[in-house]
Amino acid sequence: MSPISSEYLREPAEIRYGAELETLAQRDLAAKPPGWKLSPKAIRTFIVGEEFEKRSRKDATPTLITKKFHGDVAMIDRAIVSLMSNRGLLLVGEPGTAKSMLSELLAAAISGTSALTIQGTAGTTEDQIKYSWNYAMLLAEGPTADALVPAPLYTGLTQGQIVRFEEITRCPPEIQDTMISILSDKVLHVPELRGGENVLFAKPGFNLIATANTRDRGVHEMSAALKRRFNFETVPPIADKHFELELVLNQANELLHQVKADTVIEKDVLEVLVTTFVDLRKGKTDEGTMVDKPSTTMSTAEAVSVAFAAGLDAFYFGEGRLRGEHLAKQLVGTVLKDSTDDAKKVRQYFDVVVKNRARSNEHWKSFYEGRGILGQ
Amino acid sequence: MSESTAEARHDTQEKVSAMLLTLRTEQITYFPIRHHSPVCAIHIEKWILEHKPRVILIEGPSSFDSRIEQLTDEKCLCPVALFTNFVDKKGRLAEISAKFRASVEDTSENSQGASGEEELEERQSEIDPEDVTPQPMTQMDFGPPRFSAYYPFCDYSPELVALRVGKAVGARLRFIDLEYGETIIHQAEAMRQVHEQLKAEPAHLESLADDSHLRHSSYVEALARKLGCRNFDELWDHLFESQRDGINTDVLINRLATYCAMARQDYSRQQLLLDGTLAREDCMASAIVDELARKADGGPILVVTGGFHTVALPALVAKCVKRPSAENFGEGESGVWLMRYSFDKLDARSGYGAGMPSPAYYDRLWQSEKEAASGLTEAQSFEKVSASFLVEISRLSREKQLPYLVSTPDAIAAMQMAKQLAGIRSHPWPMREDLLDGIRACFIKGEVDIEGQVLLSLVRQVFAGNRVGQLPPGCDLPPIIADFYGEAKRLRLECERSDTKVLALDLYRNERHRAISRLFHRLSSIMVPYATYVDGPDFVRGRNIDLLIEHWQTAWSPAVESSLIEASVYGTTVEEAAAGKLGEQISKLEDESNGRSSGLVVSVLMRACRMGLHRHARTIVPLIDKHIGEDPQLASVVSALSQLELLKRAREPLEAAHLTGLSYLMQAAYHRACALLHSVANCPEDQITSVIGSMKILREFLASCHSERKQSVSGSPASSNSQFSKAKTDATTEILAEEFDSQLLYKGLQAIISCAAQESHSIIVGAAAGILYSDGKMTGAELVSLINGFLTGTVIDARKSVGVVRGLLSTASEVAWQVNEIIQALDCQMGGWDEETFMALLPDLRLAFAALAPQDICKISENVSALHGGASFGPLVLSDIAEADLNLGLALNKRVHNQLLRDGLIGGENES
Fold it and tell me: Which of A299, A301, A326, B244 is the most buried (most CB within 10 A)?
């Protein structure tokens, strides 16, 4: 991973992968849906990388299209096709499964911008979704097009671009339902304006990518009417344990490097953590022992944060070498959020699975011994 | 490195292209197929009509020739299957395994692992050469080992198309493979040989077994990954089925052969030897050599075999290999029958290894092509088929009232998506996976694994279909009837007269009776009305386990035969059919997503053992494991645990002590139960009794394991010489206490105790404390402080105070007179209650002490009276009542008595 050399703390996908998008646009000869910057196939290549597409030998462009999403290619196909259709795309799944990243990549590749984003919260209002007013002008001139301040949805409709709606189910149902007419008729009414201006028709290329967490607290129901206007795609957690281990290792190292804490992380040690996460996520160990799934999500992102915190612990309070006990200590804070049931489940996991593995493996032993309050 | 791989690749390329040249000559064409692939069928049909071959040679045992006439009969409607069996009456396999055992014992004298015979049998059950699914049917029962296999055909099976079209053009038709029984024998022999070779290095044995499980070729996997396909079926559709018309037959043959040659590279010679492939190919090649030598006039020879074999055949033919030595099968050792088959069994998902998935879907595609609807292009008519499936699913979702009712706009959206996906994936029309993707995206509102589960299982059913084939008139009866009469004769059962007879079966001492009981249980499981269960030890429900004799009523009727024929869908012998039915029950349980009850699955295992289907019972083990892991109810996990223990200990009637995985399952159930203990403290009211019962069972279970370990460690005298008592000791030594970590139980109980009083039922807390105290995991002082906490604490609800005592006494009654402080505290508490509270709590208090023995009660009352200065409680019987009161009471008693008598609630004079 290359160090970020940019003035932004975090670059949006269209800037971060600007060169790749340009390369793809140059090579892209296939038909593009109206309003799209790239053809569906090129978008797929952009997301799953070039390992999968056959790349012609003559092509001398130095930009390689990297793999940005690890998972079911068919799911990506379906997502792209959904966005071509007259339905919106709703990405569902557990927290930390890279739904937002996928939505950002899709928006960047289709519309060239991923910035038209509405963040769903309990306090999201219709103003923040559709449009609001410049009140000084409103008072001075009355409702005119100039006094209107467009929100992401308005912009997306006028420009024919993809609008992202993050965590849509965090909004109260009545706010969610404002999307119904827009998704079915592709029309936004601005009743305050007069003449032809009070109806805004969507330009080709407009569509909506929403994301929603399923196993999370503080989410609302979605009405059946709105559900019908979306195609649902489930984004699963990473299935390949080795790949996940690699990912956690790289990201933890990168994070530690950024804060100049160069903890030595051995793969074998980190494997203890990733295995624990995979076991608790799947509810079954490699040996076939059934374990209880905690209600909190055991996502890869959480694993990275545990590894990062444990790395810091090892660097500042330990000998600069990550050990199982550091991981166990940090795991407690990640897993035991607010559910007492989870504590029982994880305790049970330590008692049955970890204890058993600790007999033959020193890292697991250290992990077991560092279990702290989980041992009580 | 890269140079050498490039070289190797070049080498392979050359080899493959050389092989391709040998596939087609003027005289002969080798046509590679995938079984049940429509595209292969179409091209074979085209080729035959064009070239008019003089003879068509087809992969399949040569005895199948006798059934070609029936198979190609117009009245034979697919799906049907050729069924062949092998009954090793001459003991050939026993001979081989005896040799094998001898050689294994040579090498590993001190290892007491699986005996050679077991291992050999094991192998046989796993070998699955493409289209054969052998099942050794008898292990525990007497009788020779039996194997059987189905070769199913549907309208689009290339072999059947070759037969039908070949018949039309007047070609001679012939099957050329080894007999099924010969294959089995070759496999066993190969197993022995390979092990003999490896004798010097027994370490190899294991890796060998591992390899046999490697069913998927890594080439195929890599190719699928590269092309973005999720699995082999999608890859196949992508590469071949989508090319129906796009390519000519020669190109198809070349592509398919290349593909198979590459896939074959992943198999070692040894693997091919072990699964009998090499012997079978030698046999097929020698038949081709014979045909080539015949020098007859007419068209060329067409060889239709699975592509995997096709690529090896030309080289073998060139070498003029000899047929492997033929076996002489005696009377009743081997046979071939044509049978009805069903689409759902043909579906690859239901375990048929060589199948394509979704037979109904492919059949509909095939039919639509044959019908050649007017004015539609091929792609259009295929799209129409896809649309009809979408509409069907949408209709069924409404009819079955699924959680989400699929609407017509959904179906339109799904069709649109399938077409667009086909576009992206360069398919000429939506392939099966494109269509399924459309369904996944548009029909499921929520997560695939949660909201989508019900719908997707419906989709699987609709795509698989459930059509059952029809046999042409004049086919002989399915072998299941012969099997039934054979069994009945062997067990000396009445099958001539239709009057009712009662049989008393001694399950423990009479082996024949046991076999009869198993047969009857099997028959009733497949709904054959021959024997009706009257009574006996019912292990499944846990009733009357101490009975020794089982009673059945038997009566023969014509319905016996017809229901046997119906049951023959499940298998061709009674045993097999019962096993098939059992498999159906198991998969039903697998599909059930909620309401998991481990007790229920364990009872299926029990039932399997009662039917003597131990071999098949194995498949239930992982399922039980899963159910245990997901069962939320302590009571049902514990009942599963005790049922498993019963299985482990049961003797002759179940013979389950050696069932693989039993100990593991018990362990899993134990772990699960201990884990569930952590959350039972505040279970719903109505479960309190069962929770306490479960806690007691767990303790007893643990105690019995520990005492057994002590026994087995001290060396229990093997006094009895019955072989079953030996089996029993073996089995029980396996249940070592170490496997059941008592700490887990105590931890669980401690978790209950440490629950806050508001969140727990005091009666459960009391019961947990009782167990801990009497097992010495809690001191008297700790117990007193816990109980006192409830009795004297600030908890307003007095019921809680009494509950804890009730729970405590239910698991540790000795506490009442051993630990004086508790009675003191209770006494003190009682003093503080007003009359109303006391009356309200009286029932609970009585229940608390009801479980105690009279002498315990006496001891307690002495203690309590000591607390009050030894004062007497006064007489228990009151005698100072007035005469009027007595008379009134007597009169009342009489009236009540008469009333009860009139209502028939009491009978006769004896009652008072």
Answer: A326
User: Residues 328-367, chain A: which have Cβ within 8 Å of B?
Assistant: 341, 344-345, 347-348, 351-352
The pLDDT value given to residue B163? 94
Of B421, B447, B448, the CB nearest to A77: B421
Substitution target in A72, A78, A80, A84 with the highest count of B β-carbons within 10 Å is A78
Phi/psi of residue B714, nearest 5 degrees: -75, -5
Shortest alpha-carbon distance between residue B47 and chain A (Å)? 33
Contact residues on chain A for B227, CB-CB shorter than 8 A: 52
Do A233 and B747 count as a contact with CB atoms less than 8 A apart?
Answer: no
What percent of chain B lies above the pLDDT cut of 90? Answer: 14
Q: Distance between CA atoms of B644 and B634, rounded to whole angstroms?
A: 15
| Inter-chain touch B446–A214, beta carbons under 8 Å | yes
Q: Which of B410, B629, B744 sits opposite A290 (nearest CB)?
A: B629
What pLDDT score does B372 carry?
Answer: 64
The residues facing B84 across adjacent strands are B149, B336
Give pLDDT tens digits for A6-26.
Answer: 567 677 889 888 989 999 999
Q: Indicate whether B357 pLDDT > 50.
A: yes
Q: Can you give the pTM of this predicted structure?
A: 0.67
Q: At what angle do helices B453-464 and B432-442 cross, to 10 degrees?
A: 150
Model pLDDT, residue B616: 75
Q: Where are the beta strands (DSSP E) in B398-545?
A: 501-506, 531-535
- Please compute the mean of the pLDDT values over residues A227-255 and round it to a whole number: 85
Whether the CB of A290 is below 8 Å from some CB of chain B: the reply is yes
Chain A residue at shortest CA distance from B629: A290
Q: Residue written as tokens 């045993």?
A: B575
Average pLDDT over residues B113-141: 36
Read off the pLDDT of residues B263-286 as tens digits, 9 standing for 90 and up: 888 788 888 888 888 899 999 999
Work out the pLDDT band at B140, boundaries 50, 70, 90.
very low
d(CA B208, CA B201): 12
Q: Does residue B729 have a pLDDT over 50? A: no
Cα angle B492, B494, B496 (rounded to 5 degrees) comes to 130
Q: Chain B closest CA to A376's CA: distance in Å? A: 9
DSSP, collapsed to helix, strand or coil, labels residue B659 as: coil
CB B815 within 8 A of CB B822: yes
Q: Which residue has the higher pLDDT, B201 or B548?
A: B548
Distance between A253 CA and the closest CA of chain B, angstroms: 29
Residue from the list A82, A93, A283 with its beta carbon closest to the beta carbon of B417: A82
Question: Tell me, what's the pLDDT at B374?
Answer: 62
Interface test with A, best of B678, B741, B743, B760 (most A CBs within 10 A): B678
Strand runs (DSSP E) across A120-221, as ranges?
131-133, 148-150, 162-166, 187-189, 199-201, 207-213
8 Å CB contact of A344 and B672: no
Put simply, the answer to whether A78 touches B448 (Cβ < 8 Å) is: no
Chain centroid, CA B163 distance in Å: 36
Residue of A92, A292, A345 lying closest to B447 (CB–CB)? A92
Query: Nearest-CA neighbor of B692 among B803, B776, B852, B539?
Result: B803
A89-140 confidence digits (pLDDT tens): 999 987 777 888 899 999 999 999 999 999 998 889 999 999 999 999 999 9
Between A300-316 and A324-335, two packed helices, what is the crossing angle to 10 degrees? 130
Helices then strands, counting H and E runs in chain A, come out as 18, 9
With a CB-CB cutoff of 8 Å, which residues 187-246 of chain A face chain B?
214, 224, 227-228, 230-234
- The closest alpha carbon to B606, from B673, B525, B711, belongs to B525
What is chain B's Cα-based Rg? Answer: 36
Q: Report ipTM for this prediction.
A: 0.77
- Bridge partners of residue B339, in order along the sequence: B81
